[in-house]
Amino acid sequence: MQDSRPPSGLLTPHKSSSGPGPPGLLTPHKSSSGPGPPVATHTSAPGMVPRKRTTPNFRRMRRIIAEDTEWSLAIVPLLTELCIENIIKNFRINPILKQLPPEYQQKVLSHLPPDLPLAVTANLIEDEGYWRRCCLQRWPVCHVSRHGGSWKHLFFERHLEGLLRHFIPGTTDPNTILDLLPLCKDFVHSLRVDQLLPPVHLPPTPRTAGEQSDSGSEGEAEESSADHYALGPLVAGLSQLEELDLVYGVKDCGMNFEWKLFLFTYQDCHSLAATIKACHTLKIFRLTRSHVDEEKARILIRSLLDHPTLEELDLSHNLIGDRGARGAAKLLSHSRLRVLNLANNRVRAPGAQALAHALEHNTCLLSLNLRLNCIEDEGGQALAHALLSNACLTTLHLGGNELSEPTATLLSQVLSVNTTLTSINLSCNHIGPDGGKQLLEGVADNKTLLEFDLRLSDVTQESEYLISQALHANREAARQRALNPGHFVLPVTVNGPGKLVA
Amino acid sequence: MNPPGSVGVPEHNADQALSNPIHGPSIHSDDPQERIQARRLRIAARVEARRREALGEYLDGKKESEEDHSKSYKQKEESRLKLAKLLLYGTELVTNIQVAIDVREIHRRVEEEEIKRQRIEKLENEVKTSQDKFDEITSKWKEGKQKRIPQELWDMLNTQQLHCAGLIEDKNKLISELQQELKIKDDQYVKDLKKQSDDISLLLERMEEQVKSMMKAFRQELLHIEKAFEVERQELLTNNKKKWEWALQAHSSKELEYLVNRMKRVEEYEQQLNKQRIWDREEFIIIKIKLEQDVQILEQQLQQMKATYQLNQEKLEYNFQVLKKRDEESTVIKSQQKRKINRLHDVLNNLRSKYAKQIKQFQEENQSLTADYKRLVMQFKELQKSIRHFALIDDEKFREIWLMNEEEAKVLISRAFEVDKIIHTQHLGLPWTAPDFWFLHNVGPISQPLQKSATQIVEEVLRQTEEEGEEAASNPESYLDLPKQISSKTTKRILMLLCDESGFLIESKLLSLLLPLEKTECYLLRLDAIFSALGIESEDDLYKLVNFFFKYQAHHGSSSQTNPRDGTGTERSSLASGVERFSMATAVAQSSLESVIPRTSLASASEAAEQTSLEGGDGGEQEEKAAQAPSRLIHPNDVLKVLEAFVMGLRKSRDFWAPLKVGKDMRDDSKDSKYWEALSTVIPTAKQNLWDTFYTALERYHLVLTQRAKLLVENESLEQQNAELQSLLQQYLHSKINSELQVPPTQVFRVPTK
């Protein structure tokens, strides 16, 4: 290119006169102005520095630049860009971010590789974009909304969960988790661990031994040594923890099923109780599918009594029984619990009665789930009686509880009086056609109920249909209320005077 | 009767706090603030409702408009409902699986329980039967011990073995049964697993399907809604287009109409223009003809004028010639005149210089004269001062000399009288009475009797009237030289009235001071204050006032008597003005203090005339009687009016007299000579004659007496000489003087030197 310039420079007068390029047209004037132009070329074209050496005549050089159609300012990258590239390259060793001006910070962050060690990035990088990239690289499906809308939280929570899921007590080094603790303590708000592995004792022997004795007696012998990972130190370190969701069990065991995989030992129970008692930020606690029996449930609930922040307790799919239910009822009056889930827990009438008694004076609980228990009419009636005086429960799930007509009769009375209940589930019961009719009467008087599940409960299709119609009307009214809360008062009062006059 | 909303509210309350901020505040709330707010809201809502009713069912209108305005809205609503239904059904479909599984689980549980129960029963039965069997076997063992016969024992053992085997078999059977069951359970577990996976897959499938169908439905509904919107938009567009076109058409038709109108009008205007033009043309022609005629006439006139011009020119030429000649003459005269002017100029200049000189002279003169004048004025002033001074001194001197002379004269007269008295009493033996002449009592130069001050008069009047009760008019003429037509009683009454009515003129301080005083004294002081306020100073003023009262009464008496009450209003109004006047009057009085004395003398003269005229009218007695009656009738309310009128009159009269500044009037010395003459003629000529004769007689008597005295003296001296001689003789005879007579002559010489 440079070689071809000089000759073409000789030809410039003709070209510039004929060529349409504006710089060519300007040249004669500028050349006559004397020594001024070289300075201008210096400042305007930093990319041309090397070329200056070859062309002794400034004027000619200028013309060459003007003629160069491929010339552009972006041939050599800016120094800042080079620096940024270098910073990105050496970020692992020398992380420089906070010292940079904001626009460069953004640039650096957008180019950082997502596989940097957490020790470097955890406390340094706040940028959501970076963490988003990290998350999407590791997990194909990410629900940010379940993690407070923060990708960084999502990343750390899921990272920690993954570590916990694959932690084998006695085999894995506990420091793998505890080392992470200082990095992630500010970003983990919830922990949802859907499996906790039991310790593996003599990997070859259990199988042989297991084959030899399949009976339950073997479980008790091994119980003492089947403790899971103790969450105490971890949870104590997580200062922001609000949600704890645990399953003491193995997922996807398939045909390798063994009872001992699902053991929730007393040791586990005590350590967990101590852990949740010490965690004062906890709002949601779930312990499901973990074979929590009456005693263990009582231990746990005792530790939860008067907990300052707990709002949701989920002990579904356990074996807490009536005594556990009684404990839960006690907890109801000693905490500010808003959601209680005791689904599938072998709760019978006495437990339900205890819960009903607690419910009668409770002003916090919004949702109660007693699915797949066996409270029968006795418990159902007790609950219905409690609801007559309760004014805050909105959701009640009594599916699969062997309920029948008497409960339905009482519930219909409740429905005509209660104005807080929005959702009731009575599916899989033996309500019967008469009960259905009575419920229909109750629903007809109610304006707030939005959902009422009566599937597979021997109710005639007619009443079910009519109930659904009433619910639909209620839903529409609720929607209107939600859309324009200001007009909510108006229709009532507009009708009011008219009625009064009448 | 309550609205349903308010019935349900109490149950809402707790809930509200937690989750439902939509509900407004409730009337039945525990919080009074909230109740108040709720009531306010209710009132506002009622008012709003009434307003809406007044606005002609605004709500209905709104609904109609909603129905009207939106196909899209309808579509939206429709799709929303549809989608909600779809969603509901979809979730139901999905949850149906769960419910079904729940039911199945329940059934399984029930069955399980049943089976368990059966199993336990069976096991219990088994235990029982096996226990029986075992018991049987154990009892047989005892039997066996008693058996001695080996066959029997063997048999028994065999049977025992059999029994045991049966027992074991039973157990084994049970075990195998249980194991069978376990296996079945295992199978069932596998089946359950499979079933679960099936269920889950079904669930997934349904969910997926649901999602797909929902997506589809949503998309469809979106499409519908979009379509509805599109249609609506299209409709709107077409409507608007139609409207637009209609408007455009209307516009163009109107435009056309305007155009036609315009054309018509243009034509009309053109016709009018043409008409106008023709008319103009005709007019123009007429005017032209007229003007041409005028031109001809004017030309004729021009010709005439030219002729006259010619004539005039000739005349003028002649005149010019004449004038030229005259001019020549005039130049000569002019030169003469110029010369004359020069001369006169010189004269003028001379005169001017003279004039200037004279002016200067006169100015100087004037200055000197003015200086003289000033000096003279000064001198005159000084002179005047000295004159005044001297006049004063002269007065004094005059008075002194007078007094001296008078004293002298009086001494002489008294001596004369004494002598006369002696003559009369001692020599003539006649009783002597001292002659009483007016001039004898006079002391000092004769002057006008002094003006009495008003207060003095008043005092006198008062005193007089007081005394009158006792004296009963014993000395009717005692007082005074003054208006005789008014009795002192009347005056007093008037003054009392005045005193009572014009209390406002007295200072409040004075009033307080007056309280403890006597009645008359009190009146006196009050009147004094009132007079000083009214500006009444002299006696004459007082009498004028009294007179004024009578006159006023005479003029207004009848009218004021008829309705005396009416005056009160005006009086009160004049009261304030009276106060004003009071101050003014005092001011006037002060300013005119200097001129009071001469003025009063003049005023007295005029008043005297007045009085005489009054006197002339009626007799004093009658007047008094007549005056007494009206004075009683002067209503107190009128007093102020009268006073006002009087003060006005007084002031006016004073003002009138004020400019008349009379210098010191000359003393009239007419009486002086009389006085002195009278003094000189104290002793009448008859007495003088008497004295002359008496003198001669006495002289004669004196002569005799002197002769006798001489003789007596001679006698006496002779007697004395005799006595002396006798004593001397005695002395010489009796004393040892002879020794003493022998004194050396030196001693004798020494005595006379001493």
UniProtKB/TrEMBL annotation, chain A:
Its main location: cytoplasm. GO terms for biological process: flagellated sperm motility. Residues 1-55, 199-223 are annotated as: Disordered. InterPro entries: DRC5 (IPR052410), F-box-like_dom_sf (IPR036047), Leu-rich_rpt (IPR001611), LRR_dom_sf (IPR032675). It is found in: Cytoplasm, Cytoskeleton. It comes from the Eukaryota. Keywords: Cytoplasm, Cytoskeleton. One of its GO terms (cellular component) is sperm flagellum. This is T-complex-associated testis-expressed protein 1. The gene is Tcte1.
Automatic annotation (TrEMBL), chain B:
The keyword Signal does not apply. Residues 1-35, 556-575, 607-631 are annotated as: Disordered. GO terms for biological process: axonemal dynein complex assembly; cilium-dependent cell motility; regulation of cilium movement. The keyword Transmembrane helix does not apply. GO terms for cellular component: axonemal dynein complex. Its main location: cytoplasm. Residues 103-140, 168-210, 288-386, 708-735 form a coiled coil. Residues 100-200 form the Dynein regulatory complex protein 1/2 N-terminal domain. It is found in: Cytoplasm, Cytoskeleton, Flagellum axoneme. It comes from the Eukaryota. Keywords: Cell projection, Cilium, Coiled coil, Flagellum. InterPro entries: DRC1/2_N, DRC1/DRC2, DRC1_C. Residues 674-733 form the Dynein regulatory complex protein 1 C-terminal domain. PANTHER family: DYNEIN REGULATORY COMPLEX PROTEIN 1, NYD-SP28 PROTEIN. Belongs to the DRC1 family. Component of the nexin-dynein regulatory complex (N-DRC). Interacts with CCDC65/DRC2, DRC3, GAS8/DRC4 and TCTE1/DRC5. Component of the nexin-dynein regulatory complex (N-DRC) a key regulator of ciliary/flagellar motility which maintains the alignment and integrity of the distal axoneme and regulates microtubule sliding in motile axonemes. Plays a critical role in the assembly of N-DRC and also stabilizes the assembly of multiple inner dynein arms and radial spokes. Coassembles with CCDC65/DRC2 to form a central scaffold needed for assembly of the N-DRC and its attachment to the outer doublet microtubules. This is Dynein regulatory complex protein 1. It comes from Octodon degus. The gene is Drc1.
